[in-house]
Amino acid sequence: xxxxxxxxxxxxxxxxxxxxxxxxxxxxxxxxxxxxxxxxxxxxxxxxxxxxxxxxxxxxxxxxxxxxxxxxxxxxxxxxxxxxxxxxxxxxxxxxxxxxxxxxxxxxxxxxxxxxxxxxxxxxxxxxxxxxxxxxxxxxxxxxxxxxxxxxxxxxxxxxxxxxxxxxxxxxxxxxxxxxxxxxxxxxxxxxxxxxxxxxxxxxxxxxxxxxxxxxxxxxxxxxxxxxxxxxxxxxxxxxxxxxxxxxxxxxxxxxxxx
Length: 259
Fold this sequence. Notes:
Blueprint: H1 29-43, H2 53-60, H3 64-76, E1 80-83, E2 86-89, E3 94-97, H4 103-108, E4 114-125, H5 128-134, E5 141-151, E6 154-164, H6 171-174, H7 181-188, E7 193-204, H8 207-213, E8 220-230, E9 235-244, E10 248-251
Parallel strand pairs: 3-10
Antiparallel strand pairs: 1-2, 4-5, 5-6, 6-9, 7-8, 8-9
Helix pairs in contact: 1-3, 2-3
């Protein structure tokens, strides 16, 4: 007979092998509680409230601190979210394609409403570090556009875009900060993206970034660096985007090629 907190029988497709139970069979108590709460989350619908910490502790016969540790991990994984003084089931993560599509296009494909909130749009002399990525000589003017990313009015990321003033001279007067920058370049300036190099890493947000996104500093972030060129091969933009690790995943399609 299984122990009440034995998580091995909860194996599901796509889950860690043997639901994360080591071969020696000993599993931390908080992890067993987490596995059972995860199964409960699967039964509930998006937005439904989870039982209180006290109720969960009684249900599984453990201390409330054990329940808190399990809930903390489920919150970091994006399966739960705080709402008022309670905890509710979170919706599925947003899938952002690794392609030359914009954030706006990626969010709309999933039936969500994209948006952006302007933090700053400033002009400054290009630094040597930015020169190669933007195609601007050091000392020449560049724009820095910083915006909070929104999905259905939920803050989900922070985006910094650097582009030559020469390429977008009227960015401060013609561009709507709540709209797609890529659409502006394509439709207003006749500039099309040709290729881009991207790098993704996991980081923790700085205190300022966490405040702007509205998350705790300990929440893992996905940091995307992108350097883009136009169809003529000229450097176009450098973008640094922070995505909430609990709300985003990245997708791409791979085809087999001969080596």
